[in-house]
Amino acid sequence: MPVKPRLKVILYWHMHQPEYRDRRNNVYHLPWTYLHATKDYVDMVAHLEAIPEARAVVNFVPTLLEQIDDYARQINEFLHNSTAITDPILAALAEPVLPSSAEQRQGLLKSCLRANDARLIKRFPAYARLAEYARWLLKNPESLIYISDQLLIDLLMWYHLAWLAETVRRSDARVKRLQDKQEMFSLHDRRELLTIMSELLSGVIGRYRKLAESGQIELSMTPYAHPIMPLLLDIKSTHEAMPEAPLPHLPEYPGGEERVRWHIEQGIKSFEHYFGMRPHGCWPSEGSVSEATVRLLSEYEFHWLASGETVLRNSLALAKQPAGENQEDCIHKPYRLSNSQPVIFFRDDGLSDLIGFTYSEWHADDAVANLVGHLENIAAEGKEEGSRVVSIILDGENAWEYYPENGFYFLQALYRELVAHRDIELTTYSECLKNNCEVTELAQLVAGSWVYGTFSTWIGEADKNHGWDMLGDAKHTFDAVMASGKLDEEHRRRAEVQMAICEGSDWFWWFGDYNPAESVSDFDHLYRLQLSNLYQILGSEPPGYLSESFTHGSGTPAMGGVMRTGKKQ
To answer: Is 553 exposed, middle or buried (0-12, 13-18, 19+ CB in 10 A)?
Structure first.
């Protein structure tokens, strides 16, 4: 009697932060890159190191890798040469003299409250007391002149202590000593915490590289600044999944294919620089694909891609292609688009979203048992011939802030239980292909992303469309100046990178009423700043509209809007 193959399960963690720097002066406008690095990227690799039998696929966006590298360099140079740090929150922690103006101090208070209240602030009584006082001060700004430097120092210390990896918190005696001290932190204490952060930031990329070199994990890439490639190639591809969606005035993105190729080629260069190998797989930004995108990626010899469940379902429906005996089972096998090379794997939205949105409120053992139960049901329904692949795909950083202890118990139990299960095989996409997993031909592909199978998160609403028209204006200016030949090589290089930053998907994600007002304001400002910087590099006058805010949020989405479910709820 033939042995039924084990169910192949891929845990695919996507690490992603946009460009928060003003590249003219290297000043960071938001701290999320270094905070997620010292908390989430460190924890995620530590859990894999702790269980060598575990397997996973990990994706890094190139602009994220560059920023982690820059932070590591800055903190190291500050500690050894006293050079200035260009992130204002980190600089406040580092510098002996704190900012003195009421406005600056108010800004620091606000910044140190931007953390999950239940999981990061209230977990530590000393931090909770400071946070309560900070909130009172923000409501009574006339009292800001009475804030002592020590209060700000203690608040800054606790903010950064709370944003440390749980695996470090449990193993590093220096962190334990600082937490036990609770208050009245000294300059020596601040430098000690900076030293810990420097070690974490300097080592984290190399730790992933080492696991990839050993074969425990597979690393993949995303095009350089995380653009929505199908929209750059053909903005009208929006209508394949949203026929009635209003589009920007911009009829097409000028020179879109050339820009997509630039992002792909620069992404590969960045990957090779940091990891010393060529990537076999690609997470197209936001899992966004189209037939044109897949065929373009084929030219760069990617072996595999991944996208969202609803993209597959829309594609099967369009082609009137049968999903199989079990309608739910169609997502548990890989596909290849006709006349293209890469194999495409599709996200299991239900299982992925359970980790992203549900299990954070469960006991870790119950959550893992529930997930394993779902996988056992999938395995039990499988036929003896062939094998299936379940893709669990989500952000590698944003969910854990909502879990107790940064998801420590959940992730520990998840890897342990999946590795030990007799009917489940944790693996990677390249291993699946190496072992000749069955690939089904896909006759047609409907353009879309992992979010709802559409591009609605980035286009099709007034504010998002306006953002595209602003980008189109900038691109026309970029093309004219680049064609004129008036820029020297250094300015041409800077202009190309700055253009790429403006083409990133994150700006459009945040535009509109759905998202919280503070986050929308942050990204509205950053987007206009990045566009303005591009015009200045080009030697052109920035349009007047860049001085005015154009989008305002008023929503209260789950997880603060940083994550979305794969299917509409």
So the answer is: buried
Quick: pLDDT tens for 507-548: 999 999 989 999 999 999 999 999 999 999 999 999 999 999
Determine how β-strand 27-28 pairs with β-strand 21-22: antiparallel
Beta bridge partners of 288: none
Q: What is the mean pLDDT of the chain?
A: 95
Cα separation values, 469 from 243, 276, 359, 476, Å? 20, 38, 40, 11
Q: In sequence order, which residues have a C-beta less than 8 Å from that of residue 255 and are 6 or more positions away?
A: 475, 479
How far apart, in Å, do the first and last CA atoms of the chain sit?
44
> Which residue is it, tokens 């994220």?
64
What would the two tokens of residue 558 be?
Answer: 């789950």
DSSP structure class, residue 98: P
Contact between 200 and 38 (Cβ < 8 Å): yes
The half-sphere exposure of 227 on its side-chain side, counting CA atoms within 13 A, is 31
In the chain, the amino acid numbered 3 is V
| Element housing 129 (H / E) | helix 125-139
Strands 440-442 and 335-337 come out as parallel
Pairing of strands 281-282, 304-307: parallel
Strand partners, 425: 8
pLDDT tens-place string over residues 84-123: 999 999 999 999 999 888 899 999 999 999 999 999 999 9
138 Cβ contact list (under 8 Å, min separation 6): 106, 109, 110
CA–CA distances in Å: residue 212 to residues 220, 430, 550: 10, 12, 43
Residues β-bridged to residue 335? 344, 440
Residues 6+ apart with CB under 8 A from 397: 15, 16, 17, 36, 39, 40, 41, 44
β-strand partners of 136: none
User: How far is residue 314's CA from residue 317's CA, in Å, rounded to a whole number?
Assistant: 5
For the stretch 377-393, pLDDT in tens is 999 986 544 579 999 99
Q: How far is CA 208 from CA 41, 118, 243, in A?
A: 9, 30, 42
- Dig out the tokens for 301 from the structure: 């010899």
DSSP at 22: E
Distance CA 442, CA 314 (A): 12
Residues 159 and 168: their CA atoms lie apart, in Å, by: 15
H helices present in 444-551, as ranges: 462-484, 489-502, 506-510, 517-538
Residue 560 CB neighbours (<10 A): 17
CA atoms within 13 A on the CB side of 360: 18
DSSP H or E segment with residue 325: none
Query: What does the angle CA 267 – CA 451 – CA 528 come to, to the nearest 5 degrees?
Result: 60
The backbone torsions φ and ψ at residue 226, rounded to the nearest 5 degrees and listed phi first, read 65, 50
Q: How far apart are CA 11 and CA 472, in angstroms?
A: 37
User: 21-22 and 424-426 as β-strands: parallel, antiparallel, unpaired?
Assistant: unpaired
Q: Check residue 2 and give its pLDDT.
A: 56
The sign of the CA dihedral 393, 396, 402, 404 is positive
pLDDT score of 144: 86
Residue 123 burial class via C-beta count within 10 angstroms: exposed 0-12, middle 13-18, buried 19 and up: middle
pLDDT band of residue 328 (cuts 50, 70, 90) is low
